[in-house]
Structures are given as C-alpha cells and as structure tokens.
Amino acid sequence: MAIEGDLRDMSLPTLVQLVVHERGQARIEVENKGNKGFLYLAEGELHHVELHRGSGDAVVAEEVVYELLTWREGAFKIEKDVPPPERSVAHSWDYLVMEGLRQLDEQGVVDEGEESEESLADMMADLSPDDAAMLQNLLAQHSEKEEDEMASKSEQLKSLLNELVNSSTDILGAAVVDSDGLLLASALSGSLDGNRVAAVTAGLISLSSRSAQQLGQGGVKQTLIQAENGNIIAIRASDRASFVGLTPVGVNLGMAFMECGDAAAAVGKIL
Amino acid sequence: MSIDFSILEGDVSATAHRLERVLTDLAKDRSVDSVVLSTVDGLVIQAAPAEAGRLAAVAGFVTAAARQAAVLLSFSQVEQITIEMERDNWMVCQLFPVSGTQLILTVIFTESVAYKRLLGQVIRELKAEIED
Question: Is B65 in contact with A223 (Cβ distance < 8 A)?
C-alpha cells in the first residue's frame, strides 16, 4: 500500500526521516512541475536517487538530492518494500541534507533561474516546528563535527612538524600554510614568527606559480631559495596548502629535500 | 625586449658578442632550454635564444620576492632560487655580483641535472668577459 500526500504538508526531509526510522525498504516518489524524483531507501540509508526532468532521461547522481530538497510543493508517494535498483549514493542522508542546505545558503537562492530567493533562515521558517528542530539539530551536529575534524587535523599537522624538526638535523623549522597566507601549523624556533613565515612563503609560492604560468609551465611543484644564512624549501602539499621547511646553510640539500618531500606528502594526506 | 648594457665597459658591442657566445654555448647543452643574463630589475643583458625577454622579467620578479622573504626571515642575501615547475622543467636563478652590481643568470633546464658546477663555470666566464 502506498502513502500519498502533498509536499506542503510533509517535506522531503521528514518523509525520508520516517522511512529511515523504520529501517525498511521503500521508494519515495516526489513530483514537482512535471519533474519527478525517486529516492530508494534500505536499512535506514539512502541507496539510490533519480531525477526525471519532464520526459527526459533519468539523472542518477547523489547531487540530485540538493535539487529535490528545494521542492516545497507537489505530490509525494511512499511505496514500501521496493528494493533499490543499485547503490548509487555514497554519503549519508544527514550529510546530503546538510550539504544541500549549506549550498542553498551560500547561493542565497533556492532554485537558480527561478524567482524565489530564500536564505536558509527563510527556509527554516517555512518548515514545521518539528522539521525545523530536526534540521537545527542536524546543523549543530554537522558544525560540531567540522570543528572537531579541523581541530584533529591541526593537532596531526603540529605533531608531524614537531616530529620532523626534532628528528632532523637538517630542518630548523617547518610550517604548513594555505594559499591565502594563513598559518595552519608550525614548528619554529623562538626567533621566527609563524604568521610572518606563513605570509612570506604564501606570497612567494603565489609569485612562483604566476611566474611558471607566465612561462607556460603550469604550476609550481617546489621552490628552493638559497640565501646567505639559510634555505627556504616550499613544496605544494595539496591544492590549497604548502609545506615550508627552513634549513641552515651547509646542509645536505638532497637529504633536506627528501625529508621535506616526505613531510609534504604526509601533510597532503592529513588535509 | 629591453637590453641593459650599462654595466658593460669598454667595447660594449664586443663584450655583448662574447657574452652571447658564452650563453649560446650553455644553451647547446641538451638539458638547457633557454638562458638569460639580466639585471635584478629584470632587464635583459644577453639571452639565448634571443627572445628570452619574458624569462628575464620573470626572473626579476621572482628574485625580488625571494629577497624580501629572505630579509623577513633574517636569512640575508639570496644566492640562488630553484623552482620545479609542473611540466618537469626547472628554473634556476643564480645571483652573482659583477663590478658592484648584482646580476641574475637564469636557466630553464628540461630535466633534473647537477647544475651547480655547470653554472659556476659559466658565471666565471661571464664575469671574466664583463670585467675584462
């Protein structure tokens, strides 16, 4: 037996939450302006999602959820014991809802190309008190999780840099900086200020990259500056962050490069 | 391309030709793509191939940033900058003084090679040609 209704009475997050709670198999069909969405759930998780625009081919991608979340009106139908045709969704439902809301909030629009413009706050105001409370709870959990993850990454980076500087005779200090010049972590001797190192090296890396682009050489993998009183080694660790190692003069640069390269790879894995 | 011969003394034309020969010889090395001798302001003194003006400008640009970084980190004078680029080419900017002026020898290597001795030899030749 199918349960049918109107999305104005029961939103998609609430419908999914109901099915997730029961942990059974079900297909939720939602319809809005001639478009149809199908969400297949099993064992308390979203397994598969499809979007059919008019009479066009089905779009199968978990990002489809973000669009379905913007549908405030239209019909819904829940059919129990319908198995998912495949597993096409990797993330949890909570994650997809959070990510969908975050994207809506960032864009400041609910549906691109349409007239309606609603912020997250407006969207929350439209929900029933129970739905709003549930979403607020999920948002708070998501925010806490993100903060915990950042704190954990920062600790891991600090630990990695301290271990490198303490165990190496070639590396005087090390830091991880993002492309905006923000210091993510550092292990530097007392006379060196981490924020200064971050700002200086981020600027240098940015200029090196622009220079490589000017020469038609793409980006920069690593930069070495040999100065009278020390060397600066900067190695790209990820799309948005670089590892910086400082060495005294007269060190074995090959060894220092190897140690810095290993550290940059480890930083990339953490980030 | 801006050519700055102001540091050259005596027979400027003859010196320029001798510098060109030194750089052309270096550019014949199979690991070298292009080479330019320039001032720290990015003005070309001599290059091989001749159209390496953009390389001189970039070298001046990078050197200025590296010098600023070295000063802020109390590392004093920059001697060499090496950049490994995405397409597996290396840009090496070697700074050296001649007659009280800092010059930059910039070389684009197409592979990772031991270039220290090679650049040292070329710089000795360049200094000799300029100071003669």
Answer: no
